[in-house]
Amino acid sequence: MPIPERTQVAFVLGGGGILGATQVGMLRALLESGQTPDLVLGTSVGALNGAILAGGPTLAVVDHLTTLWTSMSTSGVFAESLFERARTLVKHGTHLHSPGPLRQLLERQLAVERIEDLPIPFQCVAASIERAAAHWFTEGSIADAVLASCAVPGLLPPVRIDSETYIDGGIVDSVPVGRAVQLGATEVYVLHVGRIEQPLTAPRRPWEVGLVAFEIARRHRFVEAMANLPDGVKVHLLPSGSDSTPSVSLRYRSPSGVADRIQRGYDATSAFLSGGASPQ
User: From the CB of residue 208, how many other CB atoms can be counted at a distance below 10 Å?
Assistant: First the structure.
């Protein structure tokens, strides 16, 4: 579907793995307040949530997402045993998990197969290995595009589409506010997992050096976009409701805490929207 000449409201959904459950609560609060998107942009897990939302931004779809996230333990995604993960790593040498369960989940959940057939314009981003650049998927298979955007190095295999190979979109644009502005959005709602709310400080321990460097690489593009917003563009950075969000989630396979994150995201965003907090 073509992007409207004058996009009004964009929902931007950032990456964050299992922490992406937070976005489901944010979405419920937004829709209950009467906010609906003219454009949906997603990165990594935000691409997964965003693609489903773009199939119809209704409370029924959010109910569906809630059920999906709370049943993550039985969905089969990342459910392989230690032996199966070891076998996959030995066989392929680059990743622990097969992309099959995630592809099957997507194909079950999506109402249409192609991006251009979604009712709401949707785009997601992945990192092109060959070009060392961001690639925005604007047409073609939704499942292929989302898998490419979600291909976390070491966990899932790179995704080959046509003549290029793609890995996780969070590497090149973890919270794509700049893309929304580029496409003409005048009001942007940022749905994230909580990391960008946590201030960075200089590392004091050896293991913190890599974590801080990684977090700067992940969020610097968002920081630059926020610092250079054009006149007339409003950006609402929705609160996640989490006091502390890990820079790296090592428990990416565990569904524990999902329901709590959904509720925290909902409560915090509902209070933010009803309080009329000033946008950026």
Answer: 13
- For the record, the structure tokens of 199 come out as 């201030």
Return the DSSP state at 16. -
Residues 178-191: pLDDT tens digits?
Answer: 999 999 999 999 99
Q: If residue 190 lies in a helix (H) or strand (E), which one and from where to where?
A: strand 187-191
Contact 26, 185 (CB under 8 A): no
H/E run at residue 247: none
Taking Cα atoms as reference points, which of 51, 30, 188 lies closest to residue 120?
51
pLDDT in tens, 5-63: 556 999 999 998 888 999 999 999 999 999 999 999 999 999 999 999 999 999 999 99
Question: Do the bridges between strand 122-128 and strand 39-43 make them parallel or antiparallel, or are there none, so unpaired?
Answer: parallel
Structure tokens at 272: 């933010």
Q: pTM for this structure?
A: 0.86
> What span, in angstroms and rounded, lies between the C-alpha atoms of 119 and 47?
16
| DSSP H helices in 168-205 | 177-182
Q: By 3-state DSSP, what share of the chain in percent is helix, strand and coil, each rounded to 5? A: 45, 15, 40
